[in-house]
# Entry
Amino acid sequence: MIITVLGFAALSRNRGAGERTKYRQSATAKDGNLSKRTQDTLFVGSLEKGMRVLSAFDHNHTSLGLTELAERTGLEKSAAQRLSNTLHKIGYLDKDPQTRRFRPSLKFLELANAYWWADPLVQLAMPKLIELGQRVQERVNLARLDGGEIVYVVRIPTQLTRFEAMIAGRRLPALTTSGGRTMIARMPAAERRKAVKTWPLVAMTPKTTMDRNKIAASIEEAVVAGYSLTVSENMLNEIALAAPILDHDGRPVAAVQCSMSSLKWSIDKVRREIAPRLIEVANSFNPIKLR
# Structure
């Protein structure tokens, strides 16, 4: 079994050229709060702009020229040029000498490495996820909630796993995923209603549920069952099952998720054979160590 230890959120936005702009706020939209930021004397605007440049790269934009960088960051071309050149000089961007296009360098991975060492849950989860993957012989993930999205922070693939499902750092709308729904299910009722009403929705496949009432019903089912199950919502022919990891206050901090092919597994078999094991692993974490 392969253990995926490569990935960075800025490198892992997936599935279609328009996806990132559909469910992530654009850099200029995020700057709607700039008036508040300018009142913060500790806020460094130039650093924020530099991070915008780094965040411009993703699955669909692996190399960018200055014009594209300016368009994707909302910066003036001259500012994009200065920032990208600085990031190149300090090692975070590689530059093609012929095309003069930029792409993320190996130094990007140092940021991901620092995150994995800093998150205690990753170290606690890794051996448990490996063991679960070996027991069920299917792909296993650990997801964190970040706003209205989930981020896969650990991915344990199988030999048949598609590349896009191997890379840690991938973001997806929480409402379309089993991991997101199972975490929402452990929130107070008022928070659940707000999430269903306001969090972003993107049709990842033709079978993605876009009806918020149906999503709400699915989440309420997860409240009772202790896990959430989706079918073909983010990948066709995929059954995804997830159970929440809770802190000492009973709030969700992450989700253990398992993905299987609907061509191989029936929903009844997944509920019968995978769900109990998944819940067992999710409940095995010591809440005190998650702080």
The longest strand covers residues 252-261.
